């Protein structure tokens, strides 16, 4: 059984016209998993609904505690991309699990989102990777502590 935790981030953003801005809404993860052909073999739990720039050290401790308390050996976490690498690095303190973080550069509700691809890719990577903490985004897998988000290129890359 794969444990999935949601934390918010762009993947779950909704555009609120009255406010002229994006906000974190209800997660579409069950729909996205079904669209990717994944219908069973997971447990889903929402940990929080935050943009990753708003995540605090306490939030990261909450994520780490949820991972530690889970019985699952394989854990998928949806997370905002801006601080995903920081959370992944914190999770390296949890040994003996395969943990994959993923998200989206465009909200799942948008037509040109990368959410479904990233989710399916992360699901596959999670089942193939050895224990450790990884980021799976846009067809690439990076080890925690060896990755950064390139804001200009809008992609993840190996850290120098």
Automatic annotation (TrEMBL):
It comes from the Bacteria. InterPro entries: Asp/glu_Ase-like_sf, Asparaginase/glutaminase-like, L-asparaginase_N, L-asparaginase_N_sf. Substrate binds at residues 52, 81-82. The keyword Transmembrane applies. GO terms for molecular function: asparaginase activity. Keywords: Membrane, Transmembrane, Transmembrane helix. It holds the Pfam family Asparaginase. Residues 2-150 form the L-asparaginase N-terminal domain. The chain crosses the membrane at residues 115-137. The active site is at residue 10. This is L-asparaginase.
């Amino acid at each position: 059984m794969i444990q999935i935790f949601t934390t918010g981030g762009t993947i779950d953003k909704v555009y609120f016209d009255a406010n002229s801005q994006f906000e974190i809404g209800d997660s579409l993860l069950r729909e996205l998993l079904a669209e990717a052909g994944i219908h069973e073999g997971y447990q889903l739990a929402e940990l929080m609904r935050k943009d990753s720039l708003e995540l605090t050290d306490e939030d990261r401790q909450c994520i780490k505690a949820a991972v530690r308390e889970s019985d699952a050996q394989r854990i998928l976490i949806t997370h905002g991309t801006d601080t995903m690498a920081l959370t992944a690095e914190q999770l390296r303190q949890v040994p003996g699990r395969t943990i994959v973080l993923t998200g989206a550069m465009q909200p799942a509700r948008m037509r040109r989102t990368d959410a479904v691809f990233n989710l399916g890719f992360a699901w596959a990577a999670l089942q193939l990777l050895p224990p450790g903490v990884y980021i799976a985004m846009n067809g690439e897998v990076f080890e925690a502590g060896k990755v950064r988000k390139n804001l200009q290129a809008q992609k993840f890359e190996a850290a120098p």
